Amino acid sequence: MKKVILKTLIYVFILIGIYLLVISFAVYPCITKGMSMYPTIGPNEIILTNRWKAIINKESIKRGDIVIIEEPSLFYISSEEYDENNVVAHYSNKINLNPFRTRWLKRVIGIAGDHIQITEDEELYINGIKQDEGYVDGNYTNITEYGMEYMYIDLIVPENTVYVMGDNRTESADSRSFGCVPLNKVYSVLF
User: Fold this and answer.
1) In degrees rounded to 5, what are phi and psi of residue 145?
2) Cα–Cα nearest to 182, from 150, 157, 165
3) Long-range contacts from 22-26, C-beta under 8 angstroms, 24+ separation
4) Domain residue ranges in the chain
5) What local confidence, expressed as pLDDT, does residue 91 receive?
6) Three-state DSSP class for residue 2
7) Fold of domain 30-190
């Protein structure tokens, strides 16, 4: 009887180890919560994402990819805090080992070197070309929200970062309010 219990425990630990390896380096499953990617992805949907691409091949992340990012330390930078020479999102230097920490689902709008502009008439331009974003309900890309002015609406995306936005622009905290996301803060990429 002791051998059966021991054998069962060994199998359970092996299966747990395999599961942890798979979600750490290959396929990361998640359940969506908010409305920031609606109508593309709604709340309470189960999605599978590619961890490998985010770990090994970050340079292959391109415009239009849907990514999971680490939550920035600051969600909004005011005009007093804004530094046009540093348009990268702020992240705490603390190591967060909590596997259940908050991560956000966003769409990559700009990659390194892209000139992102959101104009007064709420149109998105990338490298001077007006974007037709069929995944957004209307072409609504606001530059102010809840009385706050977005600071990151005219910038060049720095090396090793991406500019991200939710598809539901009125319900999304994104690069407009906190800046460009470092590639090492991209956790996973939607398949």
Assistant:
1) -155, 130
2) 157
3) 23/51, 24/51, 25/51, 25/52, 25/55, 26/50, 26/51, 26/52
4) 30-190
5) 92
6) helix
7) Umud Fragment, subunit A (2.10.109)
